[in-house]
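Progress report, Aim 2. The chain analyzed during this reporting quarter is listed below.
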Amino acid sequence: MKKLFNIILIAGLSILAVSCKKEIPQPPVPVSVQLQFENAAFQVEGITVTLTDAAGTAYFEAVTDATGEAGFTVPAGSYTASAVYKITKDGERIAYNGSNNTIVVTPDTAEPFVINLLQVISQQIIIKELYNGGCVAADEAGSYQSDQYVVLYNNSPDVADASNIVFAITAPYESYTENAYYSSGNTLLYEHEDWIPAAGALWWFTAESVTIQPWSQIVVVFKKAVDHTIVNPNSVDLSKPDYYWMNNGSITQYSRAGYEVSENIPASHYLTGACFAMSPTGWPITAGGPAFFIGKMPRDEANALCLDSEKYDVTLGTPMIFAQVKFPKANVVDAVEVWTKDNESTSHVRFPADINSNYVSITTKLGYSIYRNVDKGATEALEENAGKLVYGYTGGTDDIEGSTDPSGIDAEASIANGAHIVYSETNDSKKDFHQRKVASLK
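Predicted structure tokens for the chain:
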């Protein structure tokens, strides 16, 4: 009995010893990040570099020294590092932008991590707003998703020729779908190829000439170019005579059930296209996080590309069902990668870094849109904007775990006040876009 008591006593003391044992906190680790451009150190002082942990809960900033290196002291763990540097040269706005999502800090870390910067020269025509997530149904019982559109903007003081702009999405259609383009690791199969996969169809204007005036925009409606507010006051009016509409009339694979146009919109504002992968109802730009892009290509070339099976990529499946067209990278004008807020942990980027890095999140079915951030410095530098800019922007969703425009400039209010807005161009969707509470056309 005494022996049993001793065993119990020893076991109890062991448990007490374990329970009293405290985790010894690991000291922070000094690390550095070196910026590079074209395989050489990017030796510019004062560039802000950010480190964000894998959970998105910790955020660190440091600035580069004269060698282009930024020093941090952070806890061990996995991080994403990013940086952007903007200049104006010979009238062109140039951004050097890059990120590295493979940073793992350990107590033994000694060598600098590297961010390879890419040069982004300002484009005239950019994606200003993408409205794809839909809104609340009229009876508040569900969602309404027939009102998708995109706004293209002329981000310059010169008239822009949009005649050869084509519209496309990459595959998979949703950000969180299993992606066979990642065979292993975190690198896309086409990361270093000269093409990206376009999914479903390409679309282009039918009008001989399409122009966008300086600091102005055009609206392109994806499926139903009607006044949606008649059936759902939560939605938007897409029946304006200056809007454009993707007409599925020439695409027999797409049923007309999902397509409709107001008599207000002239036939000269119709788009057409060519389908190269089957879809039962229409072009599959979804609420579930599309990777949307615009390119520039003569219409006959775009049509020929869609019909040339030699240019198909079948990584995701058989031709005419899951085939993608190999769209030349050199013809891509602008892109935005969208992930749904609820599926970030299972999502993958679909653009290679030289087209677009990172993503912007959206909460669907609430009338939110993906809206481009203002380039504060470039906008304030325009002499004609004196006294016209409206500050105190509250249109973002940062108060509900979303995002907002860090410039603080209310773009739409400023435009209404006669200002000219220069929007951000870094080819990083997280830096260039935010989630807007109300679509700008509302």
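The longest strand covers residues 92-105. The chain has three domains: 29-121, 125-372, 374-422. These observations will guide the mutagenesis work planned for the next reporting period.
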